[in-house]
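Re: folding output
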Amino acid sequence: MNGTPSSETSVYFDAPTLHVHMSDTPTTEGVPAAPLTQSPTIDAPAKTPVLVANAPTQENPASESTPASDPPSFPVPQTDAERAEARDVVNPNDIPEPKTSPTSTISPGHHGRAASLDTPSLTRPSVFTNADGQTIAGSTFINGAGTTGPNATAEHNESLHQRAASADAVLSEGQKAKIAKNGAKGNKQLAKIIKTEAKVEKKALNLALKELAELQKIQKTAVKREAKAQSAYTKTLSTFQKHEAAFLAARSKYEASQALLTSNTEALEICRGNAKESTASMQEKSQEVDGLRTMFDVDEKEREVKLVELTGKPSTARSRFSILG
């Protein structure tokens, strides 16, 4: 009996063939079958090696106590067909062990973490930009809600509709009713998720408003400091001009006043720069809040339409965010 032909494309061993001898030729009995797990899979140039198992599989207590380092024994081929198959048998001891580089001390997980740091983010950029034309990173809902809107709806697939129509023609009324019931249950679950996300989006908008209020406080303090610095600068400049007129008579006073003017000028530039930065930050945050309010209003409308489609009745609750009105 010949073994199964080996596959030219598969990298796995073929199943072992059980040979039954009908002649009186003595065979080796009691030899366990060659374990497949000890023979690693390798690529062969012409055909895949075939493991030969001539003896039936049986439990041998002596084989369990055999050390793992002992090579598996193979039966002695008796016929020409067995000798031809024996040439394809792979001896596990003849297979070289994989070589490892002695200089490689970095774990594979380290390379994975390093690669993840260089991978660019796949997050969509914000739809809003600041005065410099740069994209505003914004908050979680800067691009809208996650369960409603165009980005949360699956694209139309004509093949799916055709498959659904074909399956619908075969199903019985009871099966259709069962599927429709499961769909209604899923609609209720999705409606619950949409309502929960509405609350989360409202919290995100409230957080953005709090951040805007904090920036406004910083702006107010910066403007006060700017006013004080401006007042000090004006007074110092007036004093400097008076001392400059009497420079020849009071050189020492002139130099002291000039040093004070330089110091106050630097303080004014620093305070003015801080005030400008706070104002720019407030403008950027105001634009973000305005965009969030607009996006929230659109999401509320789309969410209401989605809830009507899912539940079949409009929402009786009042508006979730009264500031938009």
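--- second protein (sequence, then structure) ---
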Amino acid sequence: MQPPCLGACGGSPAVLGASAHCHRPSTSRATIRCAARGGKASSRGKENVWSVDNERAAEQKGRSQKNHRGRRRPGGRSRAPPPPGSRKENDAGSRVLVSGAMLVEVETVLQTQESVLRPSWDTFASSLSGVWKGVGAVFSPITAEMEPVGLGSKQEYLYDCYTLSRIEKSYDSVHGTEIQRKTNWVQLNPHGEAEKQSASDDEWSHGISSGTVDLPAHEYFDLKKSDVLDEDVMIEEPGIVFFEDGSYSRGPLDIEIGEYDESKYFLSPTYQFEQSLVKGCHKRLRIVHTIEFNEGGANIQTVRVAVYEEKWASPANIHVEDITPVDVRPFSQRKRTKPSELTGPWKVYEVSATPIFSEKVKEIEGGAAFVYLCMETMKKRTLPESSVFFGEEEMLDMQDVTILWLPGGVTAYVDVDKDGILCIGVSWYSEEGINLVMERDYGTDGKLREVRTKTEIKRRLPIQCLLSLIVGEHGWTWTMVMPRGADAGSPALEDATKEECLQRLQNRIEVPYDSQNREHQEALKALWHASFPGTELLGLVSDQWKEMGWQGKDPSTDFRGGGFISLENLLYFAKNYPKSFEELLCKQNGDRALWEYPFAVAGVNITFMLIQMLDLQAAKPRSLIGAVFLNLLIENDRAFDILYCITFKLMDRKWLEMHATYMDFNTVIKSTRRQLERELLLEDIQQIEDMPSYGFLAR
């Protein structure tokens, strides 16, 4: 059920079956030889891209620079080099397109491996569901240059496409929960890559001197009536590894390899490996590698690399007019990531999934069960040994080509290390210094070995750093966001200010609810009158309280988990966002289940969840999320109460999207927490009101 690769294995017939009188570009294939049949790897085998250990890194540092030879294109034809006067290998404007592997050394292990819970398929399906608008392109696995995705009305090549994907969760009696995807697309842009146009003015450019091209916007096209790119059904199949934020790695559990039989030279198993990364819960990157395994798996050819970037537009079950602007630019209009941007020290949080192969597991699971582990390290990445610039005369030896540096902060790689381990990976870098990574490893026996997802945060000098706070071992160490034009010598906030902000909130958290405390009694009465104005309260112990969603007639028994602050949160919500409060209290929106969540008890649980998520009972923040939130708390001492309101509204939206019932409450809360964590780490979150979900609240 693997989806077709854009412009390679499906989609527009203009790409696959061009007219006879049209010139069709030769197919690019990157070839790697490996010991996939159990033999020794080729002497030109390379290191794993992001996961090279210190010993291998030391070996690579000592290795002398190799002499490179001109690379021949498939079919026996080679591209003539550009004139010497137009070579740009030393120009600042040159673009690195492909390179060898980068060296990664582990500096410190911050947290050793420990087990984590297996993600929920239903939660994953809910995170994936919705209408997604995006862009797509295909790239050569040899040169990393953009390749045509189709032909225009004048038989010209088109290099970009807009996509509209509708992803819905459904139920099948055989497979259980399924994820159905239908993608429509339109092709555009006969000019090619804008950065290439501005980087070169020789005969190899597209004849356009400007750096960008004025392309029609996404909204210009009616994609609902356009051609279908693909239709796919995703089930909990043996080869898929998924995470609850909607990211996943999808491919075969076993690659068909074995002894090479020359009489069956025409048999070349071809697989698609689809990997998706999620940024900030509403943006995702999806890359499809199409790879051919020849000679029993010893000869690996990457046929095509397709890249999509999409933004969540609306729920799949709610009709929204297609007028919302899409702030995702076509790949041709973006700059490529520079290798220097990925160098230096990184703090890496990694979650790995390792399959367990056994007959018993196969009988029970229908494939392989996965063990999920997490760890945290400090790593240092250094520049690749060699790279190819656009316009450079000497082409890199194909055995050294590992990383494709693509537009939009994307890097893709297919690599075989000296032990014969095949790694298929993708990373997505953003300017705020966060790099998301997904890697998929196969052993020499062709079996899936491991899948890793990583969140890497770049350590920078204080003036550059976007991490708001890093708590040192012996005290508070601050790095500040410096706006443009700000004085680099501006003083940091005093330690006392930081500790005071946190201490005030902790003092509130430590107060238990006391049914004999007059102040607490008055607060409870105020909550009733804010919830049901005009309705007389018969007493602090009354069956009336059940109408608000307390478990019994005495609400004081439900405050044990949240304390008095949970009552303060509910009261703040009722007074400051009365419209949203009433909508949730009375369950006014959406198609509700017969057995709904109890409003008040849910509110207490949300308070408890936020305290745990932000690690607010610790003397100092011990997590990135806690550190980020403390910055927001300094800006607004009511940040926790506002975050509570955001969370309650977001939880209810998740509840409706998942068609949840009372028994699904914990699953919904977990999904809500993950989205909050992603939003808090978004760029440009300077105050709590900058969170995307804040827009759900209504006064």
